[in-house]
C-alpha cells in the first residue's frame, strides 16, 4: 500500500535526523537532481532507492501519484513536506498556534524582525557580544530557523512555524511533554 511506503520513507528521513523542515528540505534538494525545486518521477524513484526505501516501480508510482496532490506530474516542496511530516494531535497544533500568535506581535500573520524587537533579546547572543553581528543579524539568524528553505525571505508564516515544530513534535512521544515544553519555551 502506498501509505505504508510513505510511512517507511518518513521513518528513513527521521532516522537520518531529517525531523525538521531543514532536514526534509535537505532530503528534497538531494532528490532534486535538476534543481527545478520539484521532483519528477525519475528523481523521486532514484531518491527512494538512494534512501534505501526499495518499494518497486509500481509501488513507487502509486506513492508518487498519492503525493502529487495537484496532478502536475511533479511533487513540489510543499506536497513533499505535507506527506512526510509526521501527523500531530490537535492539542499540539493548538499550542503551536498559541505560540505563533504570541510571536506575531503585529497580528498580521507574518513574523518579522519588527515582531522580534522587544520580545527577543539579541544582545546576549555570543556573536553580538563579540561585535561580529548587529542585533538585526541576530534576529535574522533566529528567524532563519523557522523560514522555509526555498523561500528565505526573513519572514515566518504560520505554515513555516508549524512545519518547524512538526519536526520537533516527531521527536517527542508525549503530548503532555510537548505542550509543557512549548509553554515553557514561549511563556504561554
UniProtKB/TrEMBL annotation:
The keyword Metal-binding applies. It comes from the Eukaryota. The keyword Calcium applies. SMART domains: EFh. One of its GO terms (cellular component) is organelle. Keywords: Calcium, Metal-binding, Repeat. One of its GO terms (molecular function) is calcium ion binding. This is Calcyphosin-like protein. It comes from Cyprinus carpio (Common carp). The lineage of its organism: Eukaryota, Metazoa, Chordata, Craniata, Vertebrata.
Amino acid at each position: 500500500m502506498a501509505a505504508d511506503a510513505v510511512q517507511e520513507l518518513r521513518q528513513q528521513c527521521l532516522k537520518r535526523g531529517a525531523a525538521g523542515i531543514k532536514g526534509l528540505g535537505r532530503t528534497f534538494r538531494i532528490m532534486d537532481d535538476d534543481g527545478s525545486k520539484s521532483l519528477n518521477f525519475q528523481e523521486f524513484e532514484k531518491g527512494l532507492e538512494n534512501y534505501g526505501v526499495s518499494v518497486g516501480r509500481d509501488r513507487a508510482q502509486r506513492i508518487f501519484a498519492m503525493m502529487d496532490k495537484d496532478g502536475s506530474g511533479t511533487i513540489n516542496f510543499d506536497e513533499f513536506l505535507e506527506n512526510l511530516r509526521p501527523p500531530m494531535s490537535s492539542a499540539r497544533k493548538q499550542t503551536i498556534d498559541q505560540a505563533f500568535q504570541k510571536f506575531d506581535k503585529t497580528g498580521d500573520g507574518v513574523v518579522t524582525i519588527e515582531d522580534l524587537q522587544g520580545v527577543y533579546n539579541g544582545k546576549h547572543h555570543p556573536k553580538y557580544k563579540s561585535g561580529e553581528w548587529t542585533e538585526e543579524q541576530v534576529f535574522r539568524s533566529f528567524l532563519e530557523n523557522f523560514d522555509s528553505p526555498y523561500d528565505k525571505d526573513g519572514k515566518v508564516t504560520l505554515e513555516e512555524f508549524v512545519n518547524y515544530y512538526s519536526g520537533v513534535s516527531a521527536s517527542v512521544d508525549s503530548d503532555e511533554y510537548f505542550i509543557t515544553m512549548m509553554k515553557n519555551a514561549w511563556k504561554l
